[in-house]
TrEMBL record:
HTH gntR-type domain residues: 9-77
Keyword Repeat assigned: no
SUPFAM superfamilies named in the record: Winged helix' DNA-binding domain (SSF46785)
Keyword line: DNA-binding, Transcription, Transcription regulation
Entry protein name: GntR family transcriptional regulator
C-alpha cells in the first residue's frame, strides 16, 4: 500500500478514502481481511493512533467489521459497498459540475459535453473490441 499524503487533509481521512477505493474497485473484496493497525502503521510510517482512528471511522460507517480475535474485515454486504461507490461517484460529479460552472458552462452545456464524452468513449470501446 502506498499513499502520497496531502498536507491539507487529515491523514486518517486520506487512508479512509484509499481503503474505500480499494474496496469499490475490487482490490479488496467483500469479506477480505484488512491489515492490522500495527501492520498498516509500520507500512505507511504513521502513528498507530491515526490508523486506529481510520478503522474506527470505517467501522462507524459499517464498511469494515471487527471479528473478535480475528481482526478486521471488509463488510460482506454488497449493498454497503454499492452505497460507498455511489457516494464516491456523487463526490466526483459534484466537483466536476462545480468546475464546469466556474468555467462558465450552463447545465445544458455540461450535460451535452458529458453525453458527447460518453458517446466518444463508447465508440472508442467498440472500435477496440471490434
Amino acid at each position: 500500500m502506498s499513499i502520497e499524503f496531502d498536507n491539507n487533509l487529515p491523514i486518517y481521512l486520506q487512508i479512509m478514502d484509499y481503503i474505500k477505493r480499494e474496496i469499490v474497485t475490487g482490490k479488496l473484496k467483500a469479506g477480505d481481511k484488512i491489515p492490522s493497525v500495527r501492520e498498516l502503521a509500520v507500512e505507511l510510517q504513521i502513528n498507530p493512533n491515526t490508523v486506529q482512528r481510520t478503522f474506527q471511522e470505517l467501522e462507524r460507517e459499517a464498511i469494515v467489521e471487527t471479528r473478535r480475535g480475528l481482526g478486521r474485515y471488509v463488510t460482506s454486504e454488497e449493498s454497503k459497498i454499492m452505497r460507498i461507490k455511489k457516494e464516491m461517484a456523487g463526490d466526483l460529479l459534484e466537483r466536476f459540475i462545480h468546475g464546469m460552472q466556474e468555467l462558465g458552462f450552463s447545465s445544458e452545456d455540461i450535460a451535452s459535453i458529458v453525453a458527447e464524452a460518453v458517446q466518444d468513449g463508447a465508440n472508442e470501446s467498440n472500435r477496440s473490441n471490434g
